[in-house]
């Protein structure tokens, strides 16, 4: 299949930030031309200049991309716009930008030089390494590849006004050649100086009113404009296989050159005709199949005549209706290097919506163009495209003679997914780099969802899981219905902080699984989950098959029937084991594996399987043997007591037949023994105000009476050789994590007769693993209640995928959402049925516009540095730009008050990156939080020497290992200086 799909896109054009706003502008025939923004009036423009200008090209979310303010301020605004467009376009493609890190994804960007460089690099006293990289046209592509960690081709293309469509051509060919599997293609243009406008004026190409009027009898020249756009391209078969939404299909592209014509800047009709014809041949289409063409259409009288003549050479053929032509330059002006991508995005959206927007100046058609006889027409109103396959063309011609054309087709129409009777539960996930950004994006998603027709939320949730990168501040919401989800998001955005949001200090996830013990079983437990979720259904069936030969019946059938016989010990232990193993395997299928496990008493069988100590068939045989032996014991019971051991000591003395079966916490005990003695003890303890609760158990799971069980375990274990745990295993027999002990027959026999030391085991697990979340694996949240009373460290999330007998897929989804918020990256696909794994439109990421980076003064007017910079050093920070708040007083959070070395290091870091002083503190990490690179490290060394002269001689190589945080660097500098002084 020799075709490439447009699977994602984003853009920012005058009066149109984002693809939705762009389409709205086109459909209403909007005019984006206006006066020059105030922040550009210091560069020599005539105050009467008009054009298509972005309302706030200075805004850039540098913190999101971990860019130091000094570097962000030195970057060409084209680089800043493209970084944000690339991120949003990838999200729009239904794939998280982070998921493409370290892949062969290519980046192809069209750019016409750098007016930013013209303005800043001539001021030699202000030149810095950051300004050098920030002013390079070639860095427009490299910057995207660097920040997203993309390893495919990365190049900038300058063919003047055709640059971005030539970039698309190169990206398409790179994909078809197998050079990359995903490609970002686009272009950008920011009008910063009047120079090119002066050139156009002297050539007779500049419109006096700054407005392009393509194909109009009033056409009188070009109006310059800002803009940036990026599309995400993939081979069509790959896009369809991954369930990505396809806006349009690129069927063929071509690029050629005018050669020697009547001037290097003059258009050539024959070359334009040839490039269009070549693209048609490669696409395998005829001219009469083309429904519309997004023409180059600059609105210069000569240019329009030549382009229409070239198209007429091909399209003046018998056809049922003329080919519509138009040019988005009539709406937004000439975006120069971004003109091709502006036309391509317009065409892709038209094919996606199956509607061609009107040509803005269609009512004043230029009769010299002879459109009708050439098989062409202008649209005075939007037109619906006919049913079936539709083709369109996009042209872009460079002033130096490099021409490009692309043929696009409408997206393939697949079968609509069948509707299910009961809406499936999904987890809508969203993340951001700050709490404020999370609320901002929650609100944007709520607004987008509220505008769509109400329906099942599963596909929307799946799209969010795939497209939204797991940033530090996370939120997750379980939903079945889009209207319900929109309202949930709206409420969350309005709160000070969503309850489901993770703190910025979250660390890599560490997950502990807690396996419920005897007495937690319920008739019908997880039956609803079994019916609703195929993954759990498959795993419970598998475990039941393994247990069946040893139990003499099906525990699965017993569970699904809601049979109260599940309380009989011979069924209770195998049933709980089956549920626990099935839940463990279900979570593993969803990408959730434990870092540590703890089983409460008999729950250690399932924990041992999870830790790799026992194979499932061996554990199943042991559980069945244990249950069968315990079922023959005299009937007795168990009593949960909320009280300290000292408060019940006299009761145990009065009833020696009772014994503590479990030590679950400082004030959580379980007593076991004959039913009559337990009843008497319960009355006594209740009279004292202690909370008591009888557990559903016909036989005690632990204690001296279970000696016969221990003997049976010894026999069953005779042929087994247990392995050592592959992960941390906290033993409730020993009340600690296992070291070199083997979980052999003696271990399991001892577990059967000795008290369960859950509280000590949990404390040991938390101390050793420092879990971010604890997940109970069983049919009820019994152990989580104990954990809530265990005085755990703050920040541990307690989760349960099946928190009761009526648990459904929504409960499993809720637990998965909690794991995601805690830092786990689940394998989301397994949560959804195949028909739900399809891309749905979501609001793109909303970046912060709080920071602005713009120089309002001309280079000659800027204040010069007070002193020359040291070798390899950047000059001192410039004053805050106009409209920027003054820097806050410096503080040193986390540092020792008055520590002169720490203060000096903080001051040096602030100067190197021009950070707000409050952003730099002892805990700030150089790479993750401050965005340091090798150039900044060199500058930091020089700054430290300036602030602390006694550190002269300290090398960069010596600094590198200490660059974990600002505090660790200060400690190293102090230690190094001390050692030097002693030497």
Care to describe what's here?
The protein is of the alpha/beta class and 983 residues long. It has 4 domains: 10-409, 3-Layer(aba) Sandwich (Peroxisomal Thiolase, Chain A, domain 1); 426-505, Alpha-Beta Plaits (2-Layer Sandwich), CATH 3.30.70.3290; 511-635 and 698-822, Malonyl-Coenzyme A Acyl Carrier Protein, domain 2, CATH 3.40.366.10; 878-982, Non-ribosomal Peptide Synthetase Peptidyl Carrier Protein, Chain A (Orthogonal Bundle), CATH 1.10.1200. Helices cover 37% and strands 15% of the residues. It contains 33 helices and 28 strands. Strands 1, 2, 5, 6, 7, 8, 9, 10, 11, 13, 15 and 16 form a 12-stranded mixed beta sheet that branches. Strands 26-25-20-19-27-28 form a 6-stranded mixed beta sheet, with helices on both faces. Strand 1 (4-13) and strand 2 (16-17) form a beta hairpin. Helix 1 crosses helix 13, helix 19 (555-561) packs across helix 20 (569-589) and helix 21 packs antiparallel against helix 22. Keywords: Acyltransferase, Antibiotic biosynthesis, Phosphopantetheine, Phosphoprotein, Transferase. This is Polyketide synthase. It holds the Pfam family ketoacyl-synt. Residues 857-900 are annotated as: Disordered.
């Amino acid at each position: 299949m020799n075709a490439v799909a447009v699977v994602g896109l984003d853009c920012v054009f005058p009066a149109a930030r984002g693809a939705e706003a762009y389409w709205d502008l086109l459909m209403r025939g909007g005019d984006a031309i206006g006066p020059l923004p105030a922040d550009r009036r210091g560069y020599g423009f005539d105050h009467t200049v008009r054009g298509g200008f972005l309302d706030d090209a200075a805004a850039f979310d540098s913190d999101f991309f971990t860019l130091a303010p000094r570097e962000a301020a030195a970057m060409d605004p084209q680089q800043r716009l493209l970084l944000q467009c690339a991120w949003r376009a990838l999200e729009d493609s239904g794939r998280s930008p982070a998921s493409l890190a370290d892949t062969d994804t290519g980046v192809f960007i069209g750019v016409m030089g750098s007016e930013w460089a013209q303005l800043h690099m001539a001021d030699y006293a202000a030149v810095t390494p950051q300004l050098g990289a920030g002013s390079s046209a070639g860095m427009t592509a490299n910057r995207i590849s660097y920040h997203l960690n993309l390893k495919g081709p990365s190049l900038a293309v300058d063919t003047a006004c055709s640059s971005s469509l030539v970039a698309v051509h190169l990206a398409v060919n790179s994909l078809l050649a197998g050079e990359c599997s995903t490609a970002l293609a686009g272009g950008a243009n920011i009008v910063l100086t009047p120079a090119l406008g002066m050139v156009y004026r002297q050539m007779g190409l500049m419109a006096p009113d700054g407005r392009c009027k393509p194909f109009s009898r009033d056409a009188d020249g070009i109006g310059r404009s800002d803009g940036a756009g990026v599309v995400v391209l993939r081979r069509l078969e790959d896009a369809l296989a991954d369930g990505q939404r396809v806006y349009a299909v690129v069927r063929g592209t071509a690029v050629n050159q005018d050669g020697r014509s009547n001037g290097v800047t003059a258009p050539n009709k024959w070359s334009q005709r040839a490039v269009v014809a070549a693209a048609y041949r490669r696409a395998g289409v005829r001219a009469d199949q083309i429904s519309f063409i997004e023409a180059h259409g600059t609105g210069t009288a000569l240019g329009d005549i030549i382009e229409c003549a070239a198209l007429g050479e091909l399209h003046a053929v018998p056809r049922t209706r003329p080919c519509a032509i138009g040019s988005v330059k009539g709406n937004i002006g000439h975006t120069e290097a971004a003109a091709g991508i502006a036309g391509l995005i317009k065409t892709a959206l038209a094919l996606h919506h199956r509607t061609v927007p009107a040509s803005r100046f269609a009512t004043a058609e230029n009769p010299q163009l002879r459109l009708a006889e050439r098989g062409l027409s202008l649209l005075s109103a939007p037109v619906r495209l006919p049913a079936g396959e539709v083709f369109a063309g996009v042209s872009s011609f460079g002033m130096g003679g490099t021409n490009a054309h692309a043929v696009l087709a409408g997206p393939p129409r697949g079968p609509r997914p069948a509707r299910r009777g009961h809406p499936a539960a999904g987890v809508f996930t969203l993340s951001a780099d700050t709490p404020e950004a999370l609320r901002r994006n929650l609100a944007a998603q709520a607004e987008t969802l509220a505008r769509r027709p109400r329906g099942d939320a599963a596909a929307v949730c799946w799209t969010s899981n795939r497209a939204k990168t797991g940033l530090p501040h996370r939120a997750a919401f379980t939903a079945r219905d889009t209207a319900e989800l929109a309202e949930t998001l709206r409420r969350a955005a309005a709160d000070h902080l969503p309850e489901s949001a993770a703190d910025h200090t979250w660390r890599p996830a560490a997950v502990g699984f807690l396996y419920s013990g005897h007495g937690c079983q319920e008739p019908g437990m997880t039956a609803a989950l079994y019916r609703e979720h195929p993954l759990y259904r498959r795993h419970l069936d598998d475990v039941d098959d393994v247990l069946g030969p040893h139990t003499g019946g099906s525990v699965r059938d017993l569970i699904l029937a809601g049979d109260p016989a599940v309380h009989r010990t011979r069924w209770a232990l195998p049933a709980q084991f089956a549920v626990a193993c099935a839940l463990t395997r279900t979570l593993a299928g969803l990408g959730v594996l434990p870092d540590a496990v703890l089983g409460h008493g008999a729950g250690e069988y399932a924990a041992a399987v999870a830790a790799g100590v026992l194979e499932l068939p061996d554990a199943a045989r042991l559980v069945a043997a244990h249950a069968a032996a315990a079922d023959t014991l005299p009937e007795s019971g168990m009593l949960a007591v909320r009280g300290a051991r000292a408060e019940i000591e006299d009761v145990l003395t009065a009833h020696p037949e009772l014994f503590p079966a479990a030590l679950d916490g400082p004030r959580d005990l379980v007593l076991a023994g004959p039913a009559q003695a337990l009843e008497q003890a319960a009355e006594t303890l209740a009279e004292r105000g202690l909370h008591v609760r009888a557990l559903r158990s016909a036989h005690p799971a632990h204690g001296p009476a279970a000696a016969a069980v221990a003997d049976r375990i010894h026999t069953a274990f005779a042929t087994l050789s247990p392995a050592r745990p592959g992960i941390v295993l906290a033993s409730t027999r020993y009340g600690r994590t296992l070291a070199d002990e083997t979980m052999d027959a003696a271990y399991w026999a001892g577990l059967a007769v000795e008290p369960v030391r859950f509280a000590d085991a949990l404390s040991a697990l938390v101390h050793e693993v420092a879990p971010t979340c604890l997940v109970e694996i069983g049919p009820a949240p019994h152990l989580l209640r104990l954990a809530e009373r265990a005085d755990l460290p703050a920040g541990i999330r307690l989760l349960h995928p099946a928190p009761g007998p009526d648990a459904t897929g929504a409960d499993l989804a809720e637990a998965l959402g909690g794991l995601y918020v805690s830092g786990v990256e689940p394998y989301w696909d397994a949560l959804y049925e195949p028909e739900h794994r399809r891309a749905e439109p979501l609001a793109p990421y909303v970046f912060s516009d709080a920071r602005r980076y713009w120089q309002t003064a001309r280079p000659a007017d800027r204040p010069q540095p007070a002193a020359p910079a040291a070798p390899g050093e950047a000059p001192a920070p410039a004053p805050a730009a106009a409209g920027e708040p003054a820097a806050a007083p410096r503080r040193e959070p986390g540092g020792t008050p008055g520590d002169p070395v720490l203060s000096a290091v903080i001051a040096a870091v602030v100067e190197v990156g021009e950070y707000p002083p409050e952003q730099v503190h002892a805990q700030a990490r150089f790479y993750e939080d401050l965005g340091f690179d090798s150039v900044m490290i060199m500058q930091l060394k020089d700054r430290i020497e300036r602030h602390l002269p006694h550190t002269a001689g300290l090398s960069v190589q010596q600094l590198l290992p200490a660059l974990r945080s600002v505090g660790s660097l200060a400690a190293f500098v102090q230690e190094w200086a001390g050692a030097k002084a002693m030497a």
